[in-house]
Amino acid sequence: MGFLNWYLYLRFTDRSHNKNLRSSHAKSRLEAFSDGVFAIVITLLILDIRFPEVEYGQFWQTLGSILPRILAYILSFIIIGLYWVIHHNSMHAIKTTDRGFLWLNILLLLCVSFIPFPTSLVGRYPFEAGPIIVYGATLITCNLVGYLAVVYVHYHPHLATAEFSDKYLRRHTPNYIFVNGSYLGAILLANIYPLASYLIYIAVVLLLIIFLPKVDDGINYQAH
CB–CB of 78/149 below 8 Å? Predict the structure, then answer.
């Protein structure tokens, strides 16, 4: 009996260990793939900025002409960086993944990888309503997919750690409402006050950078 108990113990321990390895491996592959996509997307932004071949006498004039593209690049770089920080921190709360969560993550990466396109439009046609609207709609879509992923984990608690609770969803839902509401306001103002739309995009990013960690965006899960 002693030998049998020992054998069963080893079999159970081995299966449990392999299951944990598979869960950890699945999560690590998702993180690695996501990091790779974020890195590629954030690199693609700079490819839209080209300095034309001109005489040096036209240097400053030409530099001024591409300044909107540079500013659009900086804004989108920070926004994508913010998405990466949020994604990175939220992974501390995830124990394992399933097919539904993987596809939501793919959909999120699809939306993020689209950001260079409206960025190029904003840079080429500054203060025009169309590019501002497309830019805002892209950001709203990214946020909606991100929120769907949070809701999905909420209804599949076995994917997350104990720290991911009802409190997490309750504290972050107002953030998504505020951010998407602000972006919607920027879209509505695009035809009337395009400058106000740009200021809204900038203000939202700054507010998220400053205040989001205070709402617990997941950065403390690692400490737990």
Answer: no
Q: What percent of the chain is helix, strand and coil (3-state, nearest 5)? A: 80, 0, 15
* Helices and strands, number each (H, E), in the chain: 8, 0
> Could you tell me if 106 and 36 are in contact, meaning their C-beta atoms sit under 8 angstroms apart?
no
Instruction: Note the pLDDT of residue 102.
Output: 94
**In degrees, to the nearest 5, what angle opens at C-alpha 114 toward C-alphas 153 and 207?**
65
Cα–Cα distance for residue pair 173/166, rounded to 1 Å: 11
pLDDT tens digits for range 78-104: 999 999 999 988 888 888 899 999 999
Domain residues of the chain, as ranges? 23-215
Q: How far apart (Å, rounded) are the C-alpha atoms in residues 190 and 184?
A: 10
- Measured distance CA(116)–CA(49) in Å, rounded: 11
HSE on the CB side for 211, CA within 13 Å?
12
